[in-house]
Design brief:
eight-stranded mixed beta sheet, single chain, alpha/beta, globular
């Protein structure tokens, strides 16, 4: 399920799902929150129909995320279709980190979108999240040191439309 190459998409997110992601992120603080997005590809965009929180099992959950394997596998085979991943950056802007980009080959072939949220802690707002969306795009294929072929992925910013 590759990204839609060369197309500028819009990610359509119901406000109720954005609130679920925000609540999960704030309940997970100070750790990174993570989960998956289920939905469908539509003309000109991707529509999210469900958010499924997943337990962060990273050894250092304050600065990294790792999806619980059992929960992840259940989501891969669920309906509606798995279309993306969400995680939070509790202390930095919602832009992809070097670690985010390096981790993409582990699951990007299954996904089309990547959302990153950060808490807005200004003026005591404990329920608002800054949210950025990225389309996962596969780029050239590379070889690792063992001469295995490894796909390479990029994250391209995509507009979000909260409905």
């Amino acid at each position: 399920m590759a990204a839609l190459h060369g197309q500028q998409n819009i990610f359509y997110i119901p406000s109720s799902i954005e609130k679920e992601m925000s609540k999960h992120m704030f309940l997970s603080l100070p750790q990174e929150a993570c989960g998956v997005l289920l939905g469908e590809t539509a003309a000109g965009g991707i529509r999210i129909s469900r958010f499924q929180p997943i337990r962060n099992v990273a050894p250092d959950p304050l600065h990294h995320f790792a999806l619980d394997d059992a929960e992840w596998i259940r989501c891969v085979f669920s309906e509606p279709k798995l279309i993306g991943i969400f995680h939070s950056h509790p202390h930095t802007r919602p832009v992809p980190s070097v670690e985010d980009i390096q981790a993409l080959p582990a699951f990007a072939g299954l996904l089309q979108m990547y959302l990153i949220g950060s808490p807005d802690l200004t003026a005591g707002l404990r329920s608002h999240m800054h949210l950025n969306g990225y389309q996962i795009e596969s780029s050239k294929v590379q070889q690792d040191q063992s001469h295995h072929i490894v796909p390479s992925y990029n994250l391209l910013p995509v507009p979000l439309c909260v409905t």
